[in-house]
Amino acid sequence: MKNKTKITLERFSTNQYRMILEGIGVGFLTGLLVSVFRLGLEKAESLRDSVLDAAKTGGQMLILAFAALLCAYLVVCYCGRKVPLAGGSGIPQVKGEMKGQIEQNWWQIILAKFAGGIGAIGAGLSLGREGPSIQLGAMVGKGFSRLTNKLRTEEKMLMTCGAGAGLAGAFSAPLAGVVFSLEELHKNFSTDILLSTMAASVTSDFVSSYIFGLSPVFGLHIAGRLPLSRYWMVILLGLVLGVFGVFYNWMTSFVQDLYDKLPRKFMRVAVPFLCVAVLAACYPYVLGSGHGIVAEVARGDFAIKALLILLAVKFLFSIVSFGSGVPGGIFLPLLVLGAITGGLFAAAVGDLAGYGDIYLANFVILGMAGYFTAIVRAPITGVLLITEMTGDFKNFLSLSIVALVSYLAADILKGQPIYDQLLHRMLSKDADYGTTEETRSHKVLLESDVYIGCPMDGEKIEEMLLPPGCLVVSVQRDKREIVPSGSTILQGGDKLILLCSQSFVKVVEEKLNNICKSIRQ
């Protein structure tokens, strides 16, 4: 054990440039995999549209449409039964593994997520590609680690690289990929992790851009900056989105509770597929992720009544699709819902205030950023993601304001971030998620900043009262490294390196958040 601990410390202190190179490798592999996944989804969605058009004639083509839907259903059921952790968006699973609470088989997840994701999204369920892409990328990082015999600490870093590269490749948003990985998954902004994740995300984006081109995901025509005189509308929209986001998370939990009452998983999967059959006949516009809806709303192609109907049906279908637990993410559907909400807000309030629809596209992108932030509770990621996906850098101020307001509104209403909510629900089911005594005993390194004004600012290390076997092995202060002892006094701005068993990761991270990353009241 001492030799392993020594090796862990030595490799951690000398791996910055090596990790950047490995990040580039993980980013390249993830970019290839995610790009193939995107191509598969495009082909599947194109095939779905062709089959639906042909089925309108009835007869044999209608039978063919039902047969194709049944095949997709069987593929999704098979993947869910063989690899349960491949279900859902995949982001809670990655978060759980980063905390040492879940252990995933990397190659099984890649195969099942890839096939199940194409089956579910291609069939027309209201799901997105970003969650699967993030989980696929994280598993590429884990596979890279296992095949090259890396330490568990390095493995978590490589998984962070892969997750960021997955989002970057899915949406051509490298900066959002970096920030999401650090803000939502790793919960740490250390230089080493930042640089390696940035290398992976940029590499993945380069690969996907080479295949899909340099155009942004949403090709919107945005008139210009929103005048400051209309920022009261931005604040009001942020409040609306904050409340709507909390309602979305509550409805997700409510629908999952209803699904849990079904005795068999194949019954749960059948519900959204039956919805696809019904909607294909009466309202096919809401099938799939809804990527094309955003541009149409921004152009003003919908009247207010049509937007209300679209919002209601898309909202319910998205909740039913995601709540069933089939492979697929929520980013893209919730961005579509945010865009519809922003367009509806601009049409209603703009007409009342006499502003018209000149800045309709502005409110569409504001709706996406604010709704994402209210649901995911990652405001920086939300602002960067929408900026990169639209290619518009003129409305950074208004995007930041709507994200801040929607975040505060959701926080005041005590809404739980969606991925924390999903992870807690997953772990509360008392299922076996692959962790063993051996994996729980692995030693890992954690990093933590000491915030100025936090409870440990000016206190001795021994006052931290860490769990047995958890040690502070290094204190970095003003680019100097201090070998700590129990009597070492910490200062705001220090960075701590801690060594602990993987089983204690969650407990230690929570304690560090309370004593080192919060301001003393």
Describe this structure in words.
66% of the residues lie in helices and 5% in strands. It has 521 residues and is mainly alpha-helical.
Question: Characteristics of this structure?
Answer:
mainly alpha
Major sheet size, sense and barrel closure: 4 strands, antiparallel
Shape: globular
Written as H for each helix and E for each strand, in order along the chain, the element string is HHHHHHHHHHHHHHHHHHHEEEEH
Provide the helix percentage.
55-70%
Uncertain parts:
none
Q: Count every beta strand, where a strand is a DSSP E run of 2 or more residues.
A: 4
Strand content: under 5%
Strand sequence of the main sheet, in spatial order? 1-4-2-3
Number of helices: 20
- Structural classification: mainly alpha
Give a nutshell description of this structure.
The protein has 521 residues and is mostly helical.
List the helices and strands and how they pair.
Blueprint: H1 2-13, H2 16-55, H3 60-82, H4 91-98, H5 106-123, H6 130-147, H7 152-171, H8 174-186, H9 191-212, H10 231-260, H11 265-282, H12 291-299, H13 304-323, H14 331-353, H15 360-376, H16 379-390, H17 396-412, H18 418-427, H19 437-440, E1 443-449, E2 471-477, E3 480-482, E4 495-501, H20 505-515
Antiparallel strand pairs: 1-4, 2-3, 2-4
Helix pairs in contact: 2-3, 2-5, 2-6, 2-7, 2-9, 3-5, 3-11, 4-18, 5-6, 6-7, 7-8, 7-9, 8-9, 8-16, 10-13, 10-15, 10-17, 12-14, 12-15, 13-14, 14-15, 15-16, 15-17, 16-17
